[in-house]
Amino acid sequence: MLSPIILAALCALALLAVASVRRIPEGHVYTFRRMGGHVRVVGSGTHWVVPLVERVAHKISLTGAAVAVEGLTIADRPGRAIVYFQVLDPERAEVVIEDVEERLRAATRRLCGAAALPATADARRQWLKRSLNEELRERGLLIARVDLNALD
């Protein structure tokens, strides 16, 4: 028969082994942060992690998301926008993923308030999409589409 101490140690070892396995779903990337600050990016599948040393810092969806931007002024009329974006490079996007929605809102408001806004609605959408991509491409994000709606 096993002594209670050995049995408890075996149970603790089994729990530690179960806690070491992480299943990451398709279309997602997890970033693990170690105690020393090192970040590891892990794609979909089953992976081993070091419990009590590594923790999940971010769960990044690669499928895309949308951000609604209210309170815009488009052609001297109030309006709103919906910005659709996708994470292309999770390693670069990991730095800004927590505040990506606020960054998109601020950049969209700033760009819509610019004096050099194109005259037609389609040209405004394309210009805004291109301008946002220039700013955020280096962060690993892609602006897929921008919908601008002037409110009446």
Q: Could you characterize the architecture of this molecule?
A:
- The protein has 152 residues and is an alpha+beta fold.
- The protein folds into two domains: 58 residues, no CATH class; 86 residues, 2-Layer Sandwich (Tetrahydropterin Synthase, Chain A).
- It is 32% helix and 38% strand.
- It is built from four helices and eight strands.
- Strands 3-2-5 form a three-stranded antiparallel beta sheet, with no helix packed on it. A three-stranded antiparallel beta sheet has the order 6-7-8, covered by helices on one side.
- Strand 2 and strand 3 form a beta hairpin.
- The N and C termini lie far apart (81 Å).
CATH class term of the largest domain: Alpha Beta
Which CATH architecture of the largest domain would you pick? 2-Layer Sandwich
Strand content: 35-45%
Could you give the order of the helices and strands? HEEEEEEEHHHE
Catalogue the unreliable spans: none
Q: Please compute the radius of gyration using only Cα atoms.
A: 23 Å
Alpha plus pi helix count: 4
**Main sheet: strands, sense, barrel:** 3 strands, antiparallel
What is the count of structural domains? Answer: 2
Shape: rod-shaped
Q: Level of helix content? A: 25-40%
Span from first to last CA?
81 Å
